Amino acid sequence: MPTRTPSPDPASFLPLKPQDYFILFVLVEAECHGYRMVQEIARLTDGRIRMEAGNLYRSIRRLSRQGLVDESDRRPAPDADDERRRYYRITDLGRQVFAAETARMRAVVVSADARLSADGGEAPK
Known about the structure:
The protein has a single domain, classed as Arc Repressor Mutant, subunit A (Orthogonal Bundle). The chain has 4 helices and 3 strands; from the N terminus they run αβααββα. It has helices at residues 18-29, 34-44, 53-65, 92-118, and strands at 32-33, 69-71, 87-90.
C-alpha cells in the first residue's frame, strides 16, 4: 500500500506577502485571468497595490509551485474570451492558507485595538 504524503500545514506558509494574499483573495471568489486579478487587487486595496504583469505572473508561478494556485481547465465560451488568456483557480490548500492568514491578521488587529484602548488612544472604527 503506497504511503500518503501528509498535506502541508497551512500555518507553515504564513505570513503571506501582501500581493500573494490578494491573489488568493481574488481567487477565493472565482477563477479568473491575470488582467482581471490586477483590476480586482487594485479595487480591493483602493489602488494601494498595483501589480504589474511580470510581478503578478512571478507570484502566480510561486504560488503554483507551493500548491496554492493552479491553472484552470475551465474556459468561458470562445466568443466571450481571448484564447491567449490563462485562467487560474485557488486550490484547497490555497483556501486553507488564505483562511489561516485572514485569521492571523484578524488576531493582530484585535491585539492592536486592545493595546490602543489600554494606552488611552482610541481604536479606529
